[in-house]
Amino acid sequence: MTLAGADPGDTAVLDAPPWGPVAPMDEELSARRTLSRGQAVVAVALPSLVAAAMAAHALAGVGPPPVRWAQAAVWAVTAAYLLSLVFRTVMVATAWTAPMIRFGEDELYAVPDEDLPSYTVLVPLYREAAVLPCLLDRLASLDYPADRLQILLLVEEDDAETRGALPDLDAPFEVVLIPPAPPRTKPKACDIGLARARGELVVIYDAEDRPDRDQLRKAALAFASLPDRTVCVQAELQYWNPWTNWLTRCFAAEYATTFGLWLRGLDRHRLAIPLGGTSNHFRGDALAALGGWDPYNVTEDADLGIRIARRGWEVRMMDSVTEEEANSRLGNWIRQRSRWIKGYIQTWLVHTRHPLLLWRQLGTRRTIAFHLTMGFPTLTTLANPFFWALTALYLCTGTRHVQAVFPPPVLYGGVVTMVAGNLLMVYCAMAGCLERGLFRAVRVMVTIPLYWGLMSVAAYKAVFQLVRPGRRHFWELTDHGLVESEADPGAPA
Known about the structure:
This protein is of the alpha/beta class. The chain is 51% helix and 11% strand. The protein has helices at residues 8-11, 37-60, 66-94, 105-108, 132-140, 160-165, 186-195, 215-225, 246-268, 284-289, 300-310, 330-351, 355-397, 408-436, 448-466; strands at 119-125, 149-156, 173-178, 201-204, 210-211, 230-239, 280-283, 314-324. It has an eight-stranded mixed β-sheet with strand order 3-2-1-4-7-6-8-5, sandwiched between helices. Helix 12 crosses helix 13 (355-397). Mean pLDDT is 89; it is low at 4-13.
């Protein structure tokens, strides 16, 4: 086994890359602080002004009554719903004609091995002893010349379970021990790995990943054929166990829609792409210039995609697949999803600290798309339980209890938005299933509103963690290896 940090002459399998040290992380783009001073002022002043206006109406009859404020809130949330639904549907619908980066086998092997760029693979690990043997086998089988490959296993120093399961490893494998200091997050481990990377190109894989064997070759060829402003190519992610239970069917359909259609639509329109947590391939020099990942952001991947766009660079989607294990246990799924939503909120808050600067850097079209990607969907997920409750009240009692907040234009507009929106989202989920060949899951999509209800549970857990300083940057660990066999036991015969 080779431990990083020893004499470079003993461990190096590649020459040092030309990009030098990693740039420091811009504190204005870090989630270390949840709110900037300006955001904190707005967060306090806005509800205070509303409360003062309500008090003035109650005491002196001045200003709009409280019901008007409630109606305005309903209008705003309904508009957010409508805009988010239309945006996502347009991205999915236009993805069918989106160009993909594809290479045939003859193109891949037309480049001699000695002309391929050096590559560093970062693999963050924590309590992954159960999946470690399969992981090492898959990494060892990657179709890339070993003398141009560096695989860094990023292991927490106090993770005795994973360290004890590590066999003796030779090049291109190296083990990097991550000090047990806060924040204890995946991006912090990746930053430490990036500082030891010696490849011109860098990719992240998670412990349960099953990337296509030729994915590194495809990414290297993609970078060679694309302009320098393309600094990242994202492989598609899909689940290898969609048939385990209802939860994995819905999860697989969600990933099929996201990576098979929605992100392709963002790529087609050259909008900012929130990266997936794995199988994103980078130009090492650009990644170092960005300062790597934000160690305080628990969806460091999505945040990095936005930071890339703000620099005027691009992310492209690549026709190569990495398979992952879909969460088949509800508690595990809630933990993972609450972390994702917490990170989306962090990312949205970070990049709206200076709205005019964001607009100048992204432009109008991409700024609007950013809000419709990172901000509005989270808002609607939090609002869903209230609207579901009001809908149930309306169905049980009629309009008399809701008509004050829902005047006829708002009520009927909201009903149309709810019905049409749900149908559109069910259609998108079904389209994702068809795109990925998950035909037996298509009929399950009529139950996917229940899955959205679980998302709201996770969203509230995320908010509660975000407002608690001790849990703000806490990394909810996802257990892997829940489905033990290579073949999904629930798969159709």
